[in-house]
Please model this.
Amino acid sequence: MTITELAEKTSSLSHVYQVTPEVYESFQRCSQDMNPLHTDEAFAQAKGFKGCVMYGNILNAFISHFVGMCLPTPHVMIQSQDINFHKPVFLNDEITLEAGIDTVSEAVNIINYKLKFYKTTDTGRQLVAKGHVQIGLLNE
Model:
């Protein structure tokens, strides 16, 4: 598969994730981040949130899954990624990651995707984060 073929197949993709207790606890174990904003309901509420705020880097893990498992080839590698957070994410939130192509470079075999993360609420979808991921296509 060429970078152009990959771009044609992945011009617009989305995947739904959920921040389950297992996701939260696994990330907490891995990161060892015990900041009370993420672990103490009373602390988070005193700061104006409805409950513990989920770790923002859980969304980075969703990007890893997206690249490694949702793209139609295993011959890819993340070269860079960034996220800007707009709204907090809470336990059991359903997050939709939407990706669209920003740029393609045949010269260096890369695709830059624009990413948007939405959570489903009672009133519809709410943008919680935006970002980018640059992937390289590896030789097969």
Q: What stands out?
A: Helices lie at 3-9, 21-31, 36-39, 41-46, 57-70. The beta strands are 12-18, 76-85, 94-105, 110-121, 124-137.
